[in-house]
Design brief:
Order of helices and strands: EEEHEHHEHEHEEH
Distance between the termini: 24 Å
Shape: globular
Number of helices: 6
Number of strands: 8
Strand content: 25-35%
Strand order of the largest sheet: 1-2-4-3-5-6-7-8
Oligomer: single chain
Length: 215
């Protein structure tokens, strides 16, 4: 932990229950990046942790948001409508520090961010491992959620993500960065040309460069 970063936790009540935010606060923040987790895990995901470790030193506070179902210890995520309600309920706490807020998340959290960005006044959306479709079901596309975000959007996608490889994404008003050989959790196989640390560095560097264009 560097002197320029302060880590704190807060809870907030939402229509869906009690949510929790773990703040990795920059000393002189110019942006807040709020990151929600996926349906199969929490804020311990490698991509979320990597961003929380890297960005505050560059003036971006990172808020890791735990949805109420995770805080309550439940194992199954609720319906999208309930996830959206939980995210909306946390938003005032995310906006309270003052800097513009980027709505973000991985997998299901990315879908929530896209669906609610315009109504909440998000500065932009960061979609990590956006689940473009269920594995093996490309006809069940969720592209409309991403394309309809209504704000600048960066998608970071693993090259081997079964929920949607980069080449499957439609063209649109978004930027897309590929993490070569990465799966849905941005894990790369041992035989990959770049190792796990390099893959995460590519991810954090891309996000850092993108946030610089937003300030």
């Amino acid at each position: 932990m560097t002197p320029d970063v302060t880590v704190t936790e807060e809870t907030t009540e939402t229509e869906a229950g009690t949510a929790r935010v773990t703040w990795h606060s920059a000393r002189d923040a110019r942006l807040v990046l709020a990151l929600g987790h996926g349906a199969g895990g929490g804020i311990e995901a490698r991509d979320l942790r990597a961003l929380a470790a890297a960005l505050p030193a560059h003036g971006v506070s990172v808020a890791l948001v735990e949805q109420p179902w995770r805080v309550a210890g439940k194992k199954l995520a609720p319906a999208p409508k309930t996830l959206d309600a939980g995210w909306r309920g946390v938003w005032p706490a995310l906006a309270a520090p003052g800097p513009p807020v980027i709505a973000g998340g991985r997998s299901a959290g990315a879908r929530v961010a896209c669906r609610t960005a315009a109504e909440l006044g998000a500065r932009a959306v960061l979609a990590l491992a956006f689940p473009l479709h269920p594995p093996g079901r490309p006809e069940k596309s969720r592209a409309d959620e991403m394309l309809g975000a209504g704000v600048p959007t960066l998608v970071v996608q693993g090259g081997n993500d079964p929920f949607g490889r980069p080449a499957e994404f439609p063209e649109g008003p978004h930027d897309l960065v590929e993490v070569a050989c990465g799966d849905h959790g941005f894990a790369v196989p041992k035989r990959a040309p770049a190792g796990q640390d390099e893959a995460l560095a590519l991810l954090t560097d891309a996000v850092l460069e993108w946030t610089g264009s937003l300030a």
